Amino acid sequence: MHTTKMKKLSAIIITNLAIWPLIPSHSLAAQTVNNATSDKQQAKDEASVEKIIITGSRQPKAANKIPGAINVISQEEVSRNLSLTSDATSLLTRTIPGYSESTQQMSNSGETLRGRVALRLFDGVPQGSPLREGNRAGIFTDMGIIERVEVINGPSASEGVGAAGGIINYISRTPKVKGTEVTLSSQYRTQFEDDSESWRLGFNVAHLEDNYDLVLAASFAETGIGYDADGRRIGLGTSGSAMDSESDNLFVKVGTNFGKQDEQRLELSLSRFNIAGKGNYILVDGDRETGLSSTSERGRPLGARASFNDFSQQSLTYTHDDLFGGAFWVQYYRADQGMRYEAENSIDKQDPLIAPIALDENGLPSSDFPLIDQSEIHSDKEGFRSSWTKLDILGVRDLELQVGLDVVKDTAQQLLALTNRVWVPPMEYTSKTPFFQLSYDLGDVTVTGGVRREDGELKVDDYTTTWYRDRREVSGGKLDYQETLTNIGAIWRVTEDLSVYVSTAEGFTLPNVGIPLRNISCSNDTSEGGVPFGGTQPDGCPDDDPISVDGILDLQPIVVKNKEIGFNWNGESANIGASYYQSDSEFGVSLRVDPETEDYIMLRRPTEISGYEMSAGYKVTDTIKLNLMYSHTEGDTRDGDTGPLDRAMGVRDVGPDKVVLTADWQFSDAGRVVLGARSVLDNDINEGRAGEEHIKGYTLFDLNANYQLDNSTFTVGIDNLLDKSYFLSHSQVDQWRNYFKGQGRIVSLGYTLKF
User: What is the DSSP secondary structure assignment for residue 76, as one 8-state letter?
Assistant: First the structure.
């Protein structure tokens, strides 16, 4: 074990309750606006700056009454990141202590929150699917329509299945000014190479009346190829790349307030986003021995179709501020996602009945595999979420009750699209999840606790595995998932400026179900031309008995238990917050690349993750502010099915220590400059044994400036200001075709016009 595992810690987030911000106060102050847009609601928000909308609470909650830790990323921070780079997830790297390094690709595989996969939401609607996690949920909308991002750190049951690592909820913009406001925005980026040029155009209409509001937004973007600091093109990711791509986004949100005192609201939201590769380049592998990184050369990629990410969602939300004396909230939603990956001719995509394999005298392939195929994941979900919250329940003053019911139906499958073969069969997960939460104020102490009951069922269709997996007939069936998740916590407001909290909570999710289903095999010998088999070994396989999904142990759920302790202090000119946590799972999950298939396989072993985080801010003068954050995360698992948890988890699961520092100078009423620095620190683990890793750290600087003139705003952004040459931490560990350098200096110019 690395340490004594910080058994003193205590955990984040209470079921269906938001968590208390540890981010510097400048970000919290920007987040005091409710989604409701009536004058009445606006006045209510202004009267209580402590009220913030957090995904888990579903109703406004005073920040200093919530035991836990969240980060709220303000609209200013979203806009700053957009002015620097087109990399959407780099926003989280810059602003969230426990979020790992961005991959700078379309795939967010290896990007974790406190060492675990987080559930990403858009206005509360889940993105992606735990049934077949395609690691493409980080890019699902144009960031120009995002007003703020709420990040619940650590495992949580507040949104049900999928939130083992926490919740990242992207909140869309709402009108703030009466009348009609039209915004035109544009960005141009370059690394001063002809094919590095990128641009984005955005159009936004916001309309607000007494009882009616509307947001209509559209954007179009084209991204060129990236270059490292040595002037070498960066290689396209094997799971898709945001480089050499084009994207478009359409978003509509309309709401109306009604009732005697506008106590009711109905809101309809529609969103459609698509990003697709243009297919102008091919990946050329680098050489780790010489230090030559992977690159891209002009050419036609394998296959016939471009990779893409396609998201669409619809939601209808109804709120009633005074229903039977309490606040009622319900949301119905539908969401669909399609993901196509790069073409491959790897061994697990071959089929001699479609394309015969030439063999040499030893029965081994004598040339490259002939069959080229592309996988596609299709998922859709439908559900509703609800809650009813009442204060002074049962006549007890300051006792608050929240009850609710969430229902969801999630379906997914994966195809080998060019040959129309099933790789992962159709799956359907349905769940009905009731919950209740109590909160009681005892003077300067608030105690919270609750229970959430996950009651789900997974249905899997009958299917036949691929040729590489022995063409096995697999009987589908139903698997039941029941879990009772509890949470309890307390926060003590020691003084007006200082609060401390402690909490413990449980989170629930499914494993990446599609991986063990497609990797079923019943032989470790050679077969059909000397091709080795391997993969999941279900019960009954050795005797060639019929295979059924109910014999696959890897389909068992992941339950995470988290403990956390922390504090937050806010003074007149400074603030600081810190937390310690421990996150354990008796039957955790991690992914490894199979050298034979060049694809992922799943490892189900116990995991113990612990760490500490700190955020601080200091107001040097009325115009200059400094902000600092630091995070340390470490995890342990084991090498085999038995034994102690003495193997450190690698960079795919747990990112290296991170330090981020920003200096913000408001040099005039119209102008602002922000200088940022972020460092990934050295990390050496498992020396002299399996899983050995050596990560060399690096420091990157960025500079952003904006100036407002009448209704126009001009921005300049420079990412990787000093043109640092570095390898991404994920690339420093040899996996499969992942030897990528990070992007060199990027210069961005932006112009926004409002009228």
Answer: H
Contact 385, 406 (CB under 8 A): yes
Cα dihedral 667, 668, 669, 674, rounded to 10, equals -20
- Residue 488's Cα: distance from chain center in Å? 25
Report how far residue 454's alpha carbon sits from residue 435's, in angstroms, rounded to the nearest whole number.
9
Q: Look up tokens 């609470």; give the residue.
A: 57
Residues of the chain with pLDDT under 50: 1-51, 53, 523-537, 539-540, 543
Q: Which of 652, 656, 529, 642 is nearest to 601 (CA)?
A: 652
Q: What is the DSSP letter of 373?
A: B
User: What's phi and psi for 655, nearest 5 deg?
Assistant: -75, 160
Q: Of 157, 68, 130, 121, nearest to 483 (Cα)?
A: 157
CB 592 within 8 A of CB 601: yes
Nearest partner of 449 among 462, 436, 432, judged by Cα: 436
Its sign, for the CA torsion 715, 721, 725, 726, is negative
pLDDT at position 46 is 38
Two tokens, residue 744: 């060199």
Of 158, 124, 169, nearest in space to 450 by CA? 158
Q: Token pair for residue 698? A: 């690096």
Query: Would you list the DSSP string of 118-165?
Result: PEEEETTEE-S-SSS--S-TT--S-GGGEEEEEEEES--STT-TT-SS
For the beta carbon of residue 487, count every other beta carbon within 10 angstroms: 29
Beta strands at 590-594 and 212-223: parallel, antiparallel or unpaired: unpaired
Q: How many CA atoms lie within 13 A of 470 on its CB side?
A: 21
Cβ neighbours, 10 Å, residue 605: 19
Q: Which residues contact 4 (CB under 8 A, 6 or more apart)?
A: none
Q: What is the pLDDT of residues 568-623, one digit of tens each?
A: 999 999 999 999 999 999 988 776 666 666 566 777 889 999 999 999 999 999 99
**Three-class SS string for 166-224?**
EEEEEEECCCCCCEEEEEEEEEEEECCCHHHCEEEEEEEEEEECCCEEEEEEEEEEEEC
What are the structural domains of the chain? 25-754 (2.40.170.20)
Q: How far is CA 75 from CA 138, 150, 247, in A?
A: 18, 11, 22
pLDDT at 159: 67
Contact 393, 399 (CB under 8 A): yes
pLDDT score for 108: 81
Residue 621 DSSP one-character state: S
Beta strand pairing status for 746-754 and 712-719?
antiparallel
DSSP state of 57: T
67 forms beta bridges with none
Produce one character per residue of 515-531: b if its CB has 16 or more CB atoms within 10 Å, e if not.
Answer: bbbbbbbbbeeeeeeeb
Handedness of CA 95, 101, 106, 108 (dihedral sign): negative
* Euclidean distance between CA atoms 152 and 70, whole angstroms: 5
- Burial class for 738, CB neighbours closer than 10 Å (0-12, 13-18, 19+): buried
How far from the centroid of its chain's Cα atoms is residue 377's Cα? 18
